[in-house]
Amino acid sequence: MALILFVSEQYIKQYTPIGNLVQWDEIEPTTHLVQDSFIQDILGSNFYTYLQLAYSAQTLNNNEIELMNRIKPAEAYRVAEQSLTFINFQIKNKGVMTQNGDYSAPADLDQFKYVRSELTNRAEFYTKRLSNYLSDNYTLFPQYITNNNTDMQPNKAGYNGGGLAFWF
What we know:
By secondary structure, the protein is mainly α. Helix content is 60%, strand content 5%. The chain has one domain.
């Protein structure tokens, strides 16, 4: 099955600090990576696949729409965080190259780390919010708690841990 993205270019650029001048082809691969790794890890493969199909077919129920409203900001801020390095640096045939425009100045390493830290904090906030919502409302999503021996089981602590208390 082809990956069906939960967030669009427009959503990412509207709700994160990624500017309109950043080309979609510079962040789209990271969007696929984030959804396939971070989001699938939280949802588990069974529920993740179900949501992709329902999202694509536009058959989400009200509970799933509410869940998607929590998935999207978690995914968008993780995309911003994970894309940051590769917006500025790209791997070319001569090695790692830095992007540089006529009227811009690259950030120094400390500034870069600060911005990435801020994006990480926002991504973690929305990830925790998503995980807490699933913890509190897991009975609304039978595919989430159904174990059909798929690729990944739901990671109830979120991708980077976090010590959240979960139920089953």
